Sequence to fold (616 residues):
Amino acid sequence: MNKVTAITSILLAGILTNNMVLSKFLGICPFLGVSKKVKTALSMSIAVTLVMVIASAVTWPIDTYILKQDYNYLQTVVFILVIAAIVQLIEIVLKKYIPPIYKALGIYLPLITTNCAVLGITLINVQNKLDFVSSLFNALAAGLGFMLAMILFAGVREKLETADIPEFLKGLPITLVAAALVSLSFLGFAGIGG
Amino acid sequence: MKKFFEENKGIIIPTVVMVLICVVVTGALAVTNMETKNPIKEQEEKTQADSMKEVMNAETYEENTAMLEGEEFTYYIAKNGEEIGYIFVTAEKGYGGDDKVMTAVNLDGTIKAVKVLDVSGETPGLGQNAGNPEWYGAFSGLSAKTETKIVKNGADKDKNEVEAVTGATISSTAIKNAVNKAISYYNYLEKEGD
Amino acid sequence: MNKNLKTLTNGIITENPTLRLVLGTCPTLAVTTAAKNGIGMGLAATAVLICSNAAISLLRKVIPDKVRIPAFITIIAGFVSVVQMLVKAFAPSIDKSLGIFLPLIVVNCIILARAEMFASKNPVLPSILDGLGMGVGFTCTLTLMGMIRELLGNGTVFGLTVTANHITPMVIFLLPPGGFFVFGMLVAASNALAKRNGKKAVEHLGCETCPMASVCQKTNCTESEVKA
Fold:
């Protein structure tokens, strides 16, 4: 497989067939928690995508050149600390140099440290032994997939606000049922891109 | 010195505490790793040995390596005094990760048995059914002279065909590809041996 | 002693982490395709929860407030890695079926939430009991959900055939939509029970239970209803 096809298939898989939220169940908390409005959903997913790509870019060399096979029992600890540090750094840099973006995304950043999608994608990258470029694209695809799921779901939820919902389903249950239906539609992509 | 400490107390104490915590955690992990390294290795070896006994019962298994198209692969010669066949462990990309398969080939060029070792990356209820012995048993008795094929229904043993797992063509194909990889190794060894 | 008992039972029923506090939803949905996986995940998380609660409670006066969260995460990650190695060594089949969700216990909100809200403010014994209670509550919910999904989706419970021979299993329950749906129904049931006992239903994921609430309240969490 040449490089372009390989990357296209990574993107297709990450966004549609192996969608982070809807088929791998990573990042469910923000998916359910921050999806009430399309606008906040979009900001949150941009922040997540940003952190995912940067975190993959940093953890990949650490794993390949420092941890290697001998110290991979330190993987989990090292990765989560690196992610926590990156999130802090991004926050500081944005605050200082690009205040408008900080204003839009800033509040989501601290939450991303404990977002399992970020730690998840860095671990998946090294476990599947992807090379550096593929890792970056895999992270990007996962982020875009997260974004797609968030925006679609936020759209559905905005409609739910005015819907007449049976008493016992009100609140979280109906949100989960709606999520089930959204993820059902993603099952249709199964098989695309191998 | 004392003055410096007083002025920067807010930075020094947290740093020292964090460093200490990291050192202790790393130490604890190193000890656990030392303690569990051997059991994990034994466990893996035992699983491997049990699987080999299952696919091709023999007194001894001799580990060998060979090169095919620039890639090194490991194979095992099963011996009951004299050679009775080869065992290969191959992996191919499935729906959500690598699927691992063990293939035993008789000296006469038929597949003795196939055992699916790992399909944990596949969808539970669909692709993971490829891990059922009732399914992969269909590979037993096929020819290792030519590649095996997956068909949707009406598999013909004489044509080296196996019926796909219902609703999981991608996973079935991944297993087939892994078996075919083993077949290519076998044919290479046969040719070299002559 | 009575108080301790209350701490223990709190996590199992009144403040069940998955159904009442709605924490740790990722593993709840992901690993519950079989009852066995639910138990495995639950026990692994319980072990980490008890140990991290104990350690954090012991260190609660030593850890400076500034580096509180990173310190907690490091300690939790340490215990998770230990559990991961032990599971690999002594229960390899569980390791295989939990896959990436084993290391991801680190970011399971339940654990950080209990560290932040309970262990960092209470002595060791209650913290351990809180960890145990929350862990058992988590394990029970996961096992129950695993049983339901396995029964409907595969016709088996704990791998034993129950209805598979009589009714064609509905595979959809093992797939992601089934996960969301069964969880939704369980929350609805728990809401109904809570209401009967005069308690409030879980309306949406609130800020009160979010482990990062203290960090994000500075930037008005309530307005955007943020939760990690």
Notes: The helical segments of chain B are 2-7, 9-55, 133-136, 169-193.
